[in-house]
Specification:
Elements: H1 3-7, E1 11-15, H2 20-31, E2 35-40, E3 59-63, H3 69-75, E4 81-84, H4 91-96, H5 98-118, E5 123-129, H6 152-171, E6 175-180, E7 183-184, H7 196-205, E8 210-213, E9 219-220, E10 223-224, H8 225-237, E11 243-247, E12 253-254, H9 255-265, E13 273-276, H10 291-297, H11 305-320
Parallel strand pairs: 1-2, 1-4, 2-3, 4-5, 5-6, 6-11, 7-10, 8-13
Antiparallel strand pairs: 9-12
Helix pairs in contact: 2-8, 5-6, 7-9, 9-11
Bound molecules: nicotinamide-adenine-dinucleotide (NAD).
Nicotinamide-adenine-dinucleotide binds near residues 18, 22 and 183.
Length: about 325
């Protein structure tokens, strides 16, 4: 069955629809013929992210909160599939406000799961995070290895995963949790708490030097948004109830190398790379074993970091009519 035929005539709820990942997913689902309900409280999301989606007759946007159970129950009445992307997403903020993080993420998933049971939702797909692994030294990260999160955000995502599996085992709800590894691409915010690629791209466009927290030897498995959207589409058609699956590029890069690569691609080698103290809650190395995603979902990432960065920059140039010389 191809992806088109899966989503035609389906009604899909995307929470966090005005955010980075949610809005990219919304656009793709609309292209595949789904009716899409977007939900976001606009805490971090932007209405401009769903500007194109709102032109479609198959899209409805609700400003609302995943902590409001009755509201969720109401809007999920005719829904077939839920993508739960809404979250308290910042690791450093979660260190400052652990209770708020728990409230949004853990009470949020419980509401989603309880509404799903009541309204007999076919499948719930949840955006988990590589942060559940914490700083265990074993690399690459495999789904069944020890998880020792080192931030309240990571703890909340681990709790969400456990609820997803429990609702599958105890109530028979069809759930899948996807553990994303550092996603980047169009619509990611260039703000203090967003991913480093979006922040550095903002710096580069303003001709500012780049800052690395720590010595820059730490590495991440930066994963391009189009591959993450693809993984979510594959998850909807897979038969893997209760599973937790890594979604990454499977190809780590150090922050030092990433900074060099970004300056090379943008022809901005004149900019400097400065180092400051490491941040609490930051993991040193993170790198996904994606064999389970390949086996259960047929996932095959199409973008390495350089290809993803070039695609992202092309989008940026077009979106903001910026004169940027991309070194391919
Ligand atoms: N971006 C990454 O690298 C990454 C990595 C691992 C996991 N994730 C997970 O993927 C999901 C999407 O992340 P993102 O990068 O798009 O972040 P984002 O902040 O852009 O999107 C999250 C959205 O959720 C909304 N939201 C927050 N609290 C809400 C609430 N109480 N009710 C309704 N909406 C609420 C925000 O306004 C925002 O639009 C999150 O669950 C995040 O934890 C992201």
């Amino acid at each position: 069955m191809d992806q088109e035929s899966i989503f035609e005539n389906k009604t899909v709820l995307v929470t966090g629809a005005a955010g980075f990942i949610g809005s990219n997913l919304v656009d793709r689902l609309l292209k595949l013929g789904a009716r899409v309900i977007g939900l976001d409280n606009l805490f971090n999301g932007r209405l401009s992210n769903v500007k194109d989606a709102r032109k479609s007759q198959r899209f409805i946007f609700h400003k609302g909160d995943v902590r409001d159970f009755n509201f969720l129950l109401d809007i999920t009445q005719d829904v077939d599939i839920i993508y739960h992307e809404a979250a308290f997403t910042s690791v450093p903020q979660s260190v400052k406000m652990p209770s708020s993080c728990n409230d949004v993420n853990v009470n949020g998933i419980l509401n989603i799961l309880n509404a799903s049971l009541k309204n007999e939702i076919e499948k719930v797909i949840f955006a988990s995070s590589s942060s559940v692994y914490g700083d265990t030294p074993t690399l690459p990260k495999k789904e069944d290895m020890k998880r020792i999160p080192i931030s309240p955000y990571g703890v909340s995502k681990l709790a969400c995963e456990a609820y997803m599996q429990t609702y599958n085992h105890v109530y028979g709800l069809d759930t899948i949790a996807l553990r994303y590894f550092n996603v980047f691409g169009p619509r990611q915010k260039d703000s203090t708490y967003s991913g480093v690629i979006a922040i550095w791209l903002g710096n580069i466009l303003r001709d500012e030097n780049l800052t690395i927290f720590g010595d820059g030897k730490n590495s991440r498995d930066f994963t391009y948004i189009k591959d993450v959207v693809q993984a979510n589409l594959l998850a909807a058609k897979s038969d893997s109830p209760g599973e937790i699956i890594n979604i990454g590029a499977g190809n780590p890069i150090s922050l030092n190398d990433l900074a060099d690569l970004m300056l090379k691609i943008t022809n901005k080698r004149n900019l400097k790379i400065n180092h400051t103290d490491p941040r609490p809650g930051d993991i040193i190395h993170s790198f996904a074993d994606i064999s389970k995603a390949k086996r259960l979902l047929g996932f095959n990432p199409k973008y390495n970091q350089e290809e993803g960065l070039i695609d992202y920059l092309e989008w940026y140039k077009k979106q903001y009519s910026i004169n940027l010389d991309i070194n391919k």
